[in-house]
Amino acid sequence: MSLAQVSPLVFWLGLIGLASVLFALQCLRVRHRRIDVVTTLFWSEAIEESRARVLFKRFRHPWSYLLVLAIAGLIWLAWAEPRSTGDSDRESVLLVDGSAGMALGSRFEDTLALLKRDVVRFPTAQRRVFWCGGDTRLLLDRGEESILLEARLEGLRPEATSRGLERACLTLARELQDDREVDLVLYGDGTIDQAVRDILPDSMALHRAAVPPEPGKDVNQGIRALGMTESNADFEAVDLYFRTSIAEANFSFHLGDQPYAGEAMALDPGEWLLRGVPARGEAFSVRLLGNDALSVDDSASIQLPFRERIRVGLSEDAPAVLRQLVAGDPALQVVEIGPAVAIGTGLEGVPSLQWTSSEEEGDAFVFVVKSDAGAGEADDLFVRLGMNQIDATGLAQASGRIIRLSVQQGETRSVRLWEELLTGEFNLTKSAAFPLFVAQAIRWLAEVEPVDPYVSVGEAHPLLTAAESVYAPPRVGAYRDGDGMERIASLAEDPLPVAEEGTAEIPRLETLASAVGGQPWMTWLILIVLVLLGLEWVLFQKGRVP
Amino acid sequence: MALTKSQIFDPAFLDSLRHLRIVARRVPAGGRFAEQRSVDSGGGIDFKDFRPYSPGDDFRSIDWNIYQRLGKVFLRLYEELEDLPLYLMPDVSRSLFLEDPPRIISCLRTTLALASISLNHHDTVGVFSFSDEGTTAWRPQSGANKIMLLADRLASLKPGGVTNFGKAMRHLQRLNLRRGLVVIVSDFFDPQGAPAVVEALKTLRHRLLLVQLVKASDREPELAGDVRLVDCETGLAEDVSVTQRVRDRYVQSYDRFQASLTNFVRERGAGMLQIDVEQPITAQLVNLFQSGSYAVR
What we know:
The structure holds two protein chains of two kinds. Chain A has helices spanning 8-27, 41-51, 62-79, 107-119, 147-153, 164-175, 194-199, 320-328, 375-384, 392-399, 433-445, 512-516, 522-541; strands at residues 2-3, 33-37, 82-83, 91-97, 127-132, 136-140, 182-187, 204-209, 223-230, 237-244, 251-255, 258-260, 265-268, 271-278, 283-288, 299-303, 310-314, 332-334, 341-343, 352-356, 365-370, 405-410, 414-418, 477-480, 486-489, 508-509. Chain A is an alpha/beta fold. Chain B has two domains: 5-22 and 84-218 and 268-286, Rossmann fold, CATH 3.40.50.410; 42-82, no CATH class.
């Protein structure tokens, strides 16, 4: 049996309190009703006899006290709503939506109030409560008293994240290892995509606790996306792109701690472009001016990369075609001293782009990666350097040799290729892929990482490796990725729940009994109370109780 | 509470009692001529006995037939008819004035009824009301025409104090009345209990008839819950939580009280009549007078 309204501890404390109060009332001095009688002769004898047998002087009616205590106790028990445990294998998991959308109005407070009222109605041994914000956190485990929830909810606020309920459902689905029936009861308005629901096992049933809808919840205006691209004009700057939920908007920008003066250009309604923001490794933030119901999506931040032109050292024997490409690349700066990348041979310990005779080198392209490089780096090079766009068949036919690519390990990075490929004898230098190859090779050698074009909440980082992509930034703000680099996640999704188009509505939790599964005893308890009241009336009429 | 004559005097009620009579087996000698057989021999018409002649006897009583047969002189003796003194003792303590209807009405109507019966048969009637002490309300006298005066006197009786049988009986004893029939009309609720009542009654030299004024609620009171019972005579209060156990003990106590009275009556050879004050009195009085008369032993 479990109690729906109060915890067992509170129930027993209440029962003891009731017994104490009733005992005190029994011991109180009775206000007698005065009646004048012709004689008290016989009454004196009657109570003289009874006084001699009373153990406790002022506690005069123990059976009456027990009867009243039974009635009061049963009423108290009925109020506590005892329920049979029902299906002991069925578990109820209460998910509290801590997504940003819950910050609207008093929705979060209303939801917590509903949760606190409901949680005591679930059998303690078969319910858990999870916080579903940026991460999924256990608030109340099986067997823990409901009274602990109050303290654990203290200080919790909606976080700048979305789809917390979905992540929790997926986590629980992975955790579920047996066929145990689970009722997921959602407290909040977060949506569960149909794709996520399809993943959930059949033993999981979704319910949504009824929360009164917040009036006017669609008046929110906010930034929906924030991304960046490398600037075409300036290697040391980036272009920022952002999208808003409204067509017309005013913004303020900050670069690092300082305001940044820039004029955003409207591309399409609600889409904006800010060109030429200096990429100095600082955080850039954009704020939507104006007040609305939800402030958490009125600003977004992104971490800009640190960019400065790559110092390149050109050897004197460098082919003219390479000289032309270096001169035309705005990201490169030819220096005599201290180059970051050497084009040609002669500089020890400096990453270099070299050419060798085909007689000396068996492979047409040789990439030397650092000995501590991961296996994925070599795989990515093929695409990153545009090798997939080189006409290798044509080169093989022209040279009459097999065109092969190899990856080696060394102290410093380097790229070697046949010098014959740099002459006009072959069509490599004339192909559209050659400038891309040279530019990307120099950037790879200088260890310049591509710009993160887009960082969004709840999605994998687009440039992380497959192994690292399991990590998704949970909330807006600074975080470190798999490489230990600090990044800033911007709010890039609609934090507000959207209409569940094309998906079935999650059924409302009309009655707790449907989730708890137990049977209420209240009807029987009330009947017993009525019987006891009838018994008391009969005993009173017979003079058995006062 | 002031009584009125109309409350106790009902001509029709008294008229219905005319055929009733209080008859004593023998009344003590020394009374007035009346209708009761006396222990004296005298000038009545009913033959009683013979006795030898003594000088000074009335010659008219000599039975000459016996003298002819036996040669000895005997006198014929006839029964002497005298009156039966009836001493009525109505209880006027506060307890008789309490309830609704108050017991005092039944008490005085019974007193008046018995007085009327006796006066109609030329007996002497005296009324001695009592509460915490005895009072001579109506000195012993006879005469059927005095019933109205007696009714007035009874109606003028005031509520007394605490019932005290001891003092009341001592008062009657001090009057040194001719032996007769004492009728005590009371609820007999003496605060000192049944033993005090019995001891007081034992001191009486008269024949005795107890008329107890009762109600059904005397034995089974309609009380429940926590009550403070205040004795209307003594003012003593008892806080009682009326439970079935207490109620049972009350009944036992009441029954013991009744048993004390009835045992005394049986041992004394006295009479006892219970009058339910909530019922008509006439029928209850008639029960006392079997075949129209109440025989005083």
